Amino acid sequence: MPIKVGDTAPNFTLPAQNGSTVSLQDFRGTKAVVLYFYPKDDTPGCTAESCAFRDQYEVFKSVGAEVVGVSADSSESHQKFAAKYNLPFTLLTDKGDQVRKLYGATAAFGLFPGRVTYVIDQQGVVQYVFDSMLNFKGHVEEALKTLQQIAK
To answer: In CA terms, which of 53, 105, 112, 125 is 20 to 30 Å from 41?
Structure first.
């Protein structure tokens, strides 16, 4: 069953591009999390989406949220991708797509890993889910709208 609004976001621990490990529970009680699953580093759609998150990163921080990207790419691939596009947020490696499957952010069109964004509040509850393979900037716009409503 895919994770939906109102569900408690399942915890996970994954390796980050900087060699550390990140757990979702690390943010609980301190920050909201914009968790976005994307298919592959350095592809046109994923680059557009990641750069849109980069361009609004300071706005996300100003509303008390952290942005975290997840794909099956290696930490080395994430390092190169983040450096090439100056991505200021964490990218996590989900080898075998275990966390992707846990969240239900599976194959789009039956072929590619899905592009799904979850807005998770400080208490760990999913407040919004945006699932679109082609509306790259929509992931950022909808996440920001949701966070701004939560902050009110």
So the answer is: 125
Is residue 6 in a domain?
A: no
Do residues 112 and 133 lie in contact, with contact meaning Cβ atoms separated by under 8 Å? yes
- Output Rg (C-alpha) for the chain, integer angstroms: 14
Catalytic site positions: 46
Asked whether residue 71 is assigned to any structural domain, the reply reads: yes
Assign residue 29 a region: left if phi > 0, alpha if psi is -120 to 50, beta otherwise? left
For the stretch 85-131, pLDDT in tens is 999 999 999 999 999 999 988 766 566 788 899 999 999 999 999 88
Of 117, 104, 93, nearest to 14 by C-alpha is: 93
- Measure the CA–CA gap between 93 and 72, rounded to whole angstroms: 5
